[in-house]
Amino acid sequence: MATARGRIDKRQAILDGAFAVFARQGYAQACVQEIADEAGVAKPTVYNHLTDKATLFRHAIQAAADSVLDQRLAALTPLGEPGPDLLATLEEVGHQLVRLHADERACALRRLLYAELTHFPDILDVVVESGPHRLSQALADRMARLILAGRLHAADPDQAAEHFLALLVGPLEARSRMGTRPLGDAELRDIAHAAARTFLQAFGAEESDGRA
After folding, report:
1. Would you say 100 and 202 are in contact if contact means Cβ atoms under 8 Å apart?
2. Above 70 in pLDDT, residue 209?
3. Which CATH number applies to 60-203?
4. pTM for this predicted structure
5. Alpha-carbon distance 26 to 19, whole Å?
6. 72-97: per-residue pLDDT in tens?
7. CATH number of the structural domain 1-51
């Protein structure tokens, strides 16, 4: 059991090291020895776990995409029990989503995708299925529950989820210049606040205090 655990941990270290090297160097310039050094393992160990550089790249991208997705899905948790102030909950969720979208690992993942897509067209499906598509589906599920509870008046939860994400990601990409300009937390909160208010103006159930 300990041997199996050690093998899993070593494989994860290799994938983490590979992603770090690919993010720094790009696919063409990265070498397996540098990845082994980054992971703290011998070069043959890398090949024992992942047979060649291309396979290593695909698996490193998949692991990074899964990690980013897990964090984003966790950020949706407050929408399960939003409480009486839906605006505040949407702001909180929005702030976590833009913070995660703008973090170093997520930005590196997008840069690698854009840079290597022509050489590895299959990684687009990996990143989409483990990223925007799954996140949008999970958010649509939360939106559907809010619609059923009378908190939103949207007819289509999928559309509501798409609109909320667009209100977050669009301004974030513009202000950060496609991830090349770091944004402070105050600016991220400003994006989340504007997105939540605009979303509720379009989809929120009307209440006497103007909040949903």
Report:
1. no
2. no
3. 1.10.357.10
4. 0.88
5. 10
6. 999 999 999 999 999 999 999 999 99
7. 1.10.10.60
Average pLDDT score over residue span 27-42: 95
Q: State the amino acid at position 199 in one-letter form.
A: F
Task: Give 153-161 contacts, CB < 8 A, sequence gap 24+.
Answer: 153/203, 153/204, 153/205, 154/203, 160/199, 160/203, 161/136, 161/137
Neighbours of 109 (CB within 10 A): 24
Closest listed residue to residue 105, CA positions, set 15, 187, 184: 15
Where do runs of H (alpha helix) occur along 30-178?
32-39, 43-49, 53-75, 86-101, 104-116, 123-129, 132-148, 157-175
Residues 6+ positions from 189 with CB-CB distance below 8 Å: 91, 95
Domain residue spans of the chain = 1-51, 60-203
3-state secondary structure of 30: coil
Report whether 149 contacts 123 (CB < 8 A).
no
Instruction: Read off the pLDDT of each residue in 120-147 and give the average, rounded to a whole number.
Output: 89
Give the three-class secondary structure for 181.
coil
Q: Which residues pair with 152 in a beta bridge?
A: 204
Q: Residue written as tokens 């667009």?
A: 166
